Amino acid sequence: PKPPPHHPPPPPSDGFTPTFLNLTGATQANDFLTFGLVDTVDDCKTMCLNVEGCAFINTYHDVNGKGGSPLLTCSLFGSCHGPDTATNVGGQSQPDGSLDFITNSDGYCKDQ
Length: 112
Prior knowledge:
By secondary structure, this protein is mainly beta. Helices cover 8% and strands 40% of the residues.
């Protein structure tokens, strides 16, 4: 008999499960904890692991909103959120007269 087809093992979890990817809005919710600027999504996950009560991260580019910084905004929340909370699409006036907008917004829930 033929052996069963080989399936690669699932990739190991890094402790987070994506709830949305590549949206144009950032999460707005009452359980917001803090935020920071990071180089990578992994840096944001590490930040969450070091903040008590963090259960969810939202990383995004706040275009025009950080003085031209290429860094990701990393927002931390106390509970998990889906795409329905990604309602902050920017539109705030900046000092140079431009409006900010959100790109590459990803949400990750910390595995319990």
